[in-house]
Amino acid sequence: MILQALVDYYEILASNNMISKPGYCVADVSYALNLSESCELLGVIPLKTAVPRGNRLQELPQPLEIPEQEKRSSGIKPCFMCDNSAYVLGVAKKDKPERVKQCFEEFRKLHHNILDNVNSISARAVLSFLDSWNPEKFEECEVLEDYREGLLSGGRIVFNIAGRGYAHEDPEIRRAWEEYRAGKPDAVKMQCLVTGKIQPIARLHPNIKGVRGTKSMGASIVSFNAPAYESYGRAEQQGLNAPVSEYAAFAYTTALNYLLSDTAHVQFFGDTTVVYWAKSPKPIYRDIFEFSINPVASNVNDVIDMTTEGLIESIFRKIVEGKPINEENPEIDPYTRFYILGLAPNAARISVRFFLEDSFGNILKNIAEHYRNLEIERSPDDFEFIPLWKLLLETVSPKSSKKAASPLLSGSVLRSVFSGLPYPQELYNSIIVRVRAEREITRAKAAIIKAFLIKQNYEKYKEELRVSLNENSNNKAYLLGRLFAVLEKAQLEANPGINTTIKDRYFTSACATPASVFPILLRLSNHHISKADYGKVYEKKISEIMEKLDVDNNPFPASLNLEEQGIFILGYYHQQRANYAKKEKEVTMNE
């Protein structure tokens, strides 16, 4: 399913000339050897460009479309028209001289096999250079003097023919390369699991690059390198264990590398790298989805103009309000298939954390419902919408050295948000644990508790699962949370600047075992009310809540279960926001 969706997306991009054709790839190239038409080495063209990295500039290779590169883990496998110094020049820093010599010979042999019958000045120049070049002259060659260290550093090298451009872009050379790829005599033909056609099968699939936590050279999604993973009768046959044609392997890896290279449309949650695409060449689908999962500040600023960004934000707001997504832009089809893929590192391979497919409209409807469930009273300087990365960060201890949520939790939360399923119990448990440990109820923590309980038990707690304070609620846990917030406010008014409040000492116990704490707090409140400037106001609020609790007939509960603890926290948060709402309103008006 994943490979099929990626192959389909590749074909959409290829039909719109947005991606490399079969037999080619985009790769980083560091240098070009500049040859004359008569094969003389004229010099070296550096292809690295200076890119800002923090406070300094870093030189990075230039991405070029080149003939598809052979995947090498061991052995000698030359690549056509582009390779490192061991193959192109027969020199290397660390390899054994005998091996480097063999690399150069295999590189030369490959180019003769492909180009011997090609009637092209560029082809003849490359072949003549490879025949005449002596690796032992590398140190003596004057035109290489300034670039020896760079050439030996392992970067890719291509050929440039003076006055004609890169040799690998010559039409005759490209035609010869494509004919060579199509006529490999050793290719095994089987039915491809992706296309269903009888085609040459790829033994090794190209690497996927850009997944956080994998090596810079990339890693594989599909690979077999031990008998435990191989099918019966397929020992040491690698890709033949799960036959994917060379075309399909090229298409899905090219499409996935294309998605991963577009940093404006890649998200990272813990160890999970998330990419997404629509069954359409239009970028608006990915732009809207990008904004919907990170609505604090769009990551697409660098690739779209402000008018388009404003349109995306407008569409997002209409989605949250429950309005049709194509109201602002009729070109957006809500029935377009949309795909979300979560990838994570796993030793030398890539594991699939999740893969979701649905219509674009349904996915956005689920995300909009998620934001509506999270909606809760906030201060003026808070995010209007809580982005997913912040939601997950709330599960992490502030003392933890690794500021990332559990990988499994991240994956299950993302799956629930995009699919409209209930949130995982682990998310709720993590927030309750963090609140009890930190005794700090942030807006995001309260919003997560509210959203979780809406999905889990809305009918039971619908009076308490509101955006702001509900003074008419008679739920005991909610009233106890409100009471604690009022008692704390009375203490703060009586003792401005106090270092340790009742929240620091008693919140965890009050939340879990109210009967053991509230009698003590109520006795303390008498002292606080007598000292506070507006003591009578707090005395009245406490009396109103106590009247609803009716502790004479219904004593304080000995304990609260996890759901009730969440309601207690919501009651505390709502009352606390109400306590400070007037003050914040006055500050805003003065500003």
Keywords, separated by commas or semicolons:
single chain; 591 residues; alpha+beta; 4-stranded mixed sheet; 4-stranded antiparallel sheet; 19 helices; 13% strand; elongated; disordered C terminus
Describe the structure in your own words:
By secondary structure, the protein is of the alpha+beta class. Among the domains are: 25-182, no CATH class; 370-590, no CATH class. The chain is 44% helix and 13% strand. It contains 19 helices and 14 strands. The chain has a four-stranded mixed sheet. Strands 11-12-13-14 form a four-stranded antiparallel sheet, sandwiched between helices. The longest helix is centred in the C-terminal third of the chain and has 29 residues, at 562-590. The two termini are 55 Å apart.
Mean pLDDT: 88
**Helix tally?**
19
Number of strands: 14
Indicate the proportion of strand residues.
Answer: 5-15%
- The helix/strand class is alpha+beta
Give the helix/strand layout:
Blueprint: H1 2-15, E1 24-29, E2 31-35, E3 41-46, E4 49-53, E5 56-60, E6 62-67, H2 85-88, H3 97-115, H4 121-132, H5 148-151, E7 157-161, E8 165-166, H6 171-182, E9 189-191, E10 198-200, H7 246-261, E11 267-269, E12 272-278, H8 284-293, H9 306-320, E13 337-346, E14 349-359, H10 360-374, H11 388-393, H12 407-419, H13 425-438, H14 443-461, H15 476-494, H16 502-512, H17 518-531, H18 535-549, H19 562-590
Parallel strand pairs: 2-7
Antiparallel strand pairs: 1-6, 2-3, 4-5, 7-8, 9-10, 11-12, 12-13, 13-14
Helix pairs in contact: 1-7, 3-4, 8-9, 8-10, 10-14, 13-14, 14-19, 15-16, 15-17, 15-18, 15-19, 17-18
